[in-house]
């Protein structure tokens, strides 16, 4: 049989350790997003029982698993950070949209004043 006609089937069995590392990375990435988008404070994070469990698990891992965990955390963090609205509290969410509204109004006002000033210069010249 020619090499082009061959079909290669590759299967990968995921061990419990692989699954545990991936789930731990999802949780850690979620905690990092909560901290970044100010849903939790640093003091709340330090006293959080889930964070303590994460730290205990990480301390018991081998170096290889810790490196894999770091790469998974980076991947999930990038994925979760793409949509910051899911990590904001309702109050923070409303404040961010009010701020955005005022920035838009201010920018329209500045542009309007600029064009008004330019029109005034054109008329008076």
Automatic annotation (TrEMBL):
Residue intervals passing through the bilayer: 97-119
Top-level lineage group: Bacteria
Keyword annotations: Membrane, Transmembrane, Transmembrane helix
Protein name per the record: Uncharacterized protein
């Amino acid at each position: 049989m020619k090499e082009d006609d061959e079909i290669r089937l590759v299967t990968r069995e995921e061990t419990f350790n692989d699954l545990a590392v991936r789930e731990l990375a999802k949780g850690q990435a979620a905690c990092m997003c909560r901290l970044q988008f100010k849903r939790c404070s640093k003091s709340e994070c330090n006293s959080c029982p889930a964070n303590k469990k994460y730290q205990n698990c990480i301390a018991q891992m081998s170096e290889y698993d810790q490196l894999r965990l770091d790469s998974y955390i980076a991947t999930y963090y990038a994925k979760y950070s793409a949509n910051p609205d899911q990590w904001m509290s309702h109050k923070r969410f409303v404040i961010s949209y009010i701020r955005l509204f005022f920035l838009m109004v201010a920018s329209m006002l500045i542009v309007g004043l600029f064009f008004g000033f330019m029109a005034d210069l054109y008329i008076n010249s």
